[in-house]
Amino acid sequence: MTNRSSGAGRVLFLSSFLFAACSGGGGSSTPSFAVRTTSVSWAQNTPVAISGKNLAFLAAEDVTGAGGTDFNTDGDVNDTIAVAVDTSRNRETVLDVAADNLAWIGNELYLVTQESEDEVDWNTDTDTTDLVLLHWNSTLAAPEFVDELGDDALFARGNNLWYSSATAPAGALATSLRVIAASAPLTATAVASTDAVGPLSPTIVGSDEGLVFLALDETVEGRDLNGDADATDTSVLALLNGLSVANVVRNTELALATGSPLRARANGSNDWQVGFLVSEAAQGATNLNDPASFGASWHPTQCSGDDDADTTDAVLHYLNFAAWSANAVTSPIRNTGLVGSRRICVANGFVATLSLESDEGTCDLNADGDTTDRVVRWTQIVAGTGAIVPLNDAANLHAVADCEGGTRGLAELDSRFVALVSEADDDLDIDGGGLTHELLGWLLPSNTAHAWDFTHSAANDAFVGASYMAEVPGRAQLGVALPENIEGENINRHVPAVAGEDTDTNDAAPTFADFSSSTTMTFPGVAIATNFDNAGLVISKGYAFYRVSESEDSRNWNNDLDETDQILFRTSLSQGTSFAMAVLNDITVGGDATPAVIVDTVGTPQAAALIVDEAIVGSDVNGDGTQHFVLEYFRF
After folding, report:
1. CA–centroid distance for 611 within its chain
2. Could you tell me which residue, 203 or 360, shows the higher pLDDT?
3. What are the φ/ψ torsions at residue 618 (nearest 5 degrees)?
4. Which of 4, 175, 262, 571 yields a CA-CA distance of 20 to 30 A from 492?
5. Residue 302: phi, psi to the nearest 5?
6. Would you say 635 and 32 are in contact if contact means Cβ atoms under 8 Å apart?
7. End-to-end CA distance of the chain
8. pTM over 0.90
9. How far apart (Å, rounded) are the C-alpha atoms in residues 423 and 404?
């Protein structure tokens, strides 16, 4: 590609694609977005479940009310208590039962409860040591017992709920997995498997677009499930079509790498293109990225003499679910031989991951003189047993910078890959300004080698970066917090200027990236400063939601005499209007950014939840006598 120096043309372009200003000020004028406050304190870092009009969360006894509140009357205030909210009626119900997890199917709420936390023998077995599943709906005075659980994971989709029962399965084709339909909320049906040898006790480890990822533990089953002649592997991957209660568990016979990202991209009715990482060590200490296992075109020429010889890597595998389910011999799971980490993306029939060079036989994949980079690599998802031929041109294998928002610097947008490339790590001056920036580029993957596109706009003359990048369901848009310092323009300046306005170029503006044409990636957005590292961008039902940092924006958006707050803003993507909605939070979990709002990402959103930090607000928002975290909500 051609290097370009910084210039006024690109600065003007950046100004033109951002909405000139923010509409609104201290709050929403739209009744549909009226923010309601719950009466209890939210237990920090606990789950929030939302489906349709229904919302549920966990309240913290110890910080609800002065001195705490013993909701479940067990003599302490150490529990997290389930709370249900009907957002259409603004009706809140504290269930007075401790819970660790929760999920909705239709109007039926399910709770995971430790008997010891409530000191209640829910399953009437004369002890209070069990983990149990409880059910509640608005017609019940109190929750009721459903089953004893094997673990605390739940998977809810539509009107069906899956979980692992503590009841040991017996015989071939049997599993401990159970499914409940909302039409019969207390009836659990056993889920079968394709294993003709013996029973399975799966653990739910994830889901994506309706496909459920399960882990099988050989030490529990007492047998070899991945064909490596031992029975010591604790995470052999199995899959379940979660779109119907009639589907069965299928063992991939491959051991998942620890912390493997999981991706299932819907590819037709009851079909997915699935990517995951396999542990060489757990898969019989097998070198899965040995070049000798592949054709001559598989091996990058720049890696000649640096062949991997160890068995310590995590290696990218894929499958076409429907074809594999129908015939695993003619449509087997395929080993790409690409070492992977952090992310798996699928676009245009190709699967990508982030390869750490030091795991690839110390190969300098991007030919920058070192082997310390995390490089984006991809290969076609070929049908059947076709040859695996990754794209190997060093000029187009780029070092990816880590990024907040869950994408780790690699994302899907439409049928394309989007990567945040580090000029310094890549030793490549992409924008002509030195090795100083992290820049967004995109690629429509194909079997023909071609360069990533780092220039954006119809004139192809603008470079952009990202301090935060978040995907949305359907991948038709991408939430990007766009740093000012790439182009050196003060995007969030006042027009016209006012006293005390922002004068720096250190901020990031919220944008909602898409492709205005097949060759142009654009970034419509708002001329305001997000929280640079914790923008929290969420796009749902035609609106974008994000955190605005008053201190970074140099504006007092809620008129409280300071500029220290985090403000929830919303933007209509069709009208281009924006409103301040509430004072928010700056919560991170494990150092990672968190979404500004919580929405239903599977069904049709009717409501959204947000967490308010009363310490930021500076007052007791819900009037319970303490300043803590409070859950609020609004209707679309």
Report:
1. 18
2. 203
3. 85, 20
4. 4
5. -70, -10
6. yes
7. 44
8. yes
9. 18
